[in-house]
Q: What sequence folds into this?
């Protein structure tokens, strides 16, 4: 629906348009227009009233003071203009630097608004429209402006067979000072010369059609221009862009424009477009860098970002050995939930994304780096590219933050994390960290036995029934570095992991005491005494001490179950090691 109503395709500037004026239907490459019975004013098509008609691309109709023109898909710039090309002039940037504006206050006032125009644009389409408005405001003699893009990686062939292929051109946006003159197509030849070939401003001047033709052309859709120039916009954020400006002279083009540039009446317009292009290129580059930092910020802490954005970033990314602390975090119950929701996999994926977001946020906020994602698991690490004396503390704070976030919502059925639990393994040691991969593709990661150990510890949280496990070097550092109000540890058992021969002492990371903490400091002391008794074979004493812990504590289940399995009597040749039968 076309009209001034907010629910219709709104055209609020046209006073002769009714709230709901016409029905528009696009079918098979044609636009069908039907005037609604409630419309107060007529629709003009082909110079007469018409209530129902169809239009091809480039067809038009009029309501009140507004001309509506059909544009199917993206308009493509035309090969050129019908007039004879009188001059093609390449204008170097250095040639313009020596010239002063003859109307400096107005031009500088327009330019001063450019940063706000770019920063406040809602999207690229909005930005293109605002740039078009600025060019029309800053170049008073311009009749039409456009923002074009030369797609350097593609080619289009025009003309007969054997013609050299040309880069493809997209018309990102166009505007005319008098909208009633219809659509506008820039000169393909000029755009390619300026953006694809020269990378400098190119000015074209054409001869005017004869008077009779000129009278006729003012009523056509295209119209003709006496001059046009195209200025490339240089920068990674606007690669292949060009600003295109076209207009007419009041007098004879040949006598007006062929003068040297200092006397040329277009010199200020070209210089203004050059300044706009330079500012747009610079500000878009800043936007690109900010967007990249926004992406990196999801994976790296501010300290790591500072190093990666420095001049020595390539050197900083080189793989090297470092003392690191690795955290591996995996979702529990994920496979079962995927099976239960076989018809709602997208919903499950969204829930997993929320869970990975909790993991990522806690790792990055505690100065860690994201090394990788493994389906429903995430791995972070500390100690690279800068050595971090507090890497163990930061890793433990991240782990406790992840655990607390899941515990807080696991009983809320409406929350995306409902029903999910996590297992977390943390290990410290020597590893290779940095850009790891091939020459074609690489990622920032960490490699070494400590990574495998962290992953194995995470897997052991399930049979040991605790959320967070540490290796012994990490646990020792927690005991010596972290205060009790930050984190506590409980040496859980000495186990032989499934598939390995070497025993491993595993330690649980426990939250500090508080209203939501199940274990008090006395409970931890009782468990430590029970473990010592268990290791030396005093299982009756160990069993009694274990029963002092609250029933909600699942960490004691491993020792309790093993004691009951052997009827309170250690097996022959007891060495204190519990063999794990699953990964």
A:
């Amino acid at each position: 629906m076309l009209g001034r109503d907010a629910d219709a395709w709104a055209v609020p500037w046209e006073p002769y348009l009714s709230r709901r004026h016409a029905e528009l239907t696009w079918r098979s490459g044609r636009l069908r227009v039907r005037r609604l019975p409630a419309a107060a004013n007529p629709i003009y098509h082909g110079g007469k009233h018409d209530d129902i008609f169809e239009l091809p691309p480039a067809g038009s109709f009029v309501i009140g003071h507004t001309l509506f023109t059909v544009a199917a898909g993206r308009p493509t710039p035309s090969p050129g203009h019908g007039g004879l090309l009188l001059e093609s002039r390449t204008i170097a940037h250095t040639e313009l630097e020596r010239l002063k504006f003859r109307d400096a206050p107005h031009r500088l006032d327009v330019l001063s608004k450019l940063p706000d125009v770019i920063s406040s644009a809602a999207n690229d389409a909005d930005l293109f429209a605002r740039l078009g408005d600025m060019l029309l405001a800053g170049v008073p003699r311009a009749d039409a402006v456009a923002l074009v893009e030369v797609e350097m990686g593609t080619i289009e062939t025009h003309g007969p067979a054997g013609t050299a292929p040309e880069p493809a051109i997209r018309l990102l946006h166009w505007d005319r000072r008098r909208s009633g003159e219809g659509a506008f197509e820039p000169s393909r030849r000029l755009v390619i010369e300026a953006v694809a070939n020269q990378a400098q401003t190119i000015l074209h001047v054409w001869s005017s059609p004869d008077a009779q033709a000129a009278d006729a052309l003012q009523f056509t859709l295209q119209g003709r221009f006496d001059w046009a120039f195209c200025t490339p916009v240089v920068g990674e954020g606007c690669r292949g862009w060009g600003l295109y400006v076209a207009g007419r002279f009041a007098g004879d083009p040949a006598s007006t424009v062929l003068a040297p540039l200092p006397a040329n009446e277009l010199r200020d317009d070209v210089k203004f477009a050059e300044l706009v292009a330079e500012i747009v290129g610079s500000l878009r580059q800043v936007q690109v860098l900010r967007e990249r930092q926004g992406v990196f910020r999801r994976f790296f802490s501010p300290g790591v970002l500072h190093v990666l954005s420095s001049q020595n970033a390539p050197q900083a990314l080189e793989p090297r050995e470092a003392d690191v602390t690795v955290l591996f975090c995996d979702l529990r119950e994920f496979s079962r939930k995927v099976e239960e929701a076989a018809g709602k996999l997208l919903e499950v994926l969204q829930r997993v994304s929320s869970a990975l977001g909790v993991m990522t946020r806690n790792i990055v906020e505690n100065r860690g780096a994201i090394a990788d994602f493994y389906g429903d698991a995430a791995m972070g690490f500390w100690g690279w590219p800068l050595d971090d004396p507090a890497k163990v503390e930061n890793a433990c704070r991240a782990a406790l933050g992840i655990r607390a976030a899941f515990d807080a919502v696991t009983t809320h059925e409406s929350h995306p994390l409902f029903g999910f639990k996590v297992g977390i393994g943390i290990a410290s040691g020597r590893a290779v960290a940095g850009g790891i991969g091939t020459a074609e593709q690489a990622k920032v990661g960490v490699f070494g036995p400590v990574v495998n150990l962290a992953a194995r510890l995470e897997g052991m949280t399930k049979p040991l029934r605790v959320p967070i496990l540490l290796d012994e070097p990490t646990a020792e550092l927690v005991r010596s570095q972290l205060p009790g109000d930050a984190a506590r540890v409980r040496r859980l058992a000495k186990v032989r992991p499934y598939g390995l021969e070497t025993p491993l002492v595993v330690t649980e990371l426990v939250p500090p005491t508080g209203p939501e903490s199940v274990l008090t400091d006395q409970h931890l002391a009782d468990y430590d005494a029970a473990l010592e008794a268990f290791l030396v074979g005093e299982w009756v004493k160990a069993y009694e001490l274990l029963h002092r812990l609250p029933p909600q504590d699942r960490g004691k289940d491993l020792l309790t179950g093993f004691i009951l399995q052997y009827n309170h009597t250690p097996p022959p040749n007891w060495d204190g090691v519990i063999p794990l039968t699953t990964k």
User: Anything to note?
Assistant: The longest helix spans residues 267-297. Residues 74-80, 157-163, 209-223, 253-258 have pLDDT under 50 and may be disordered.
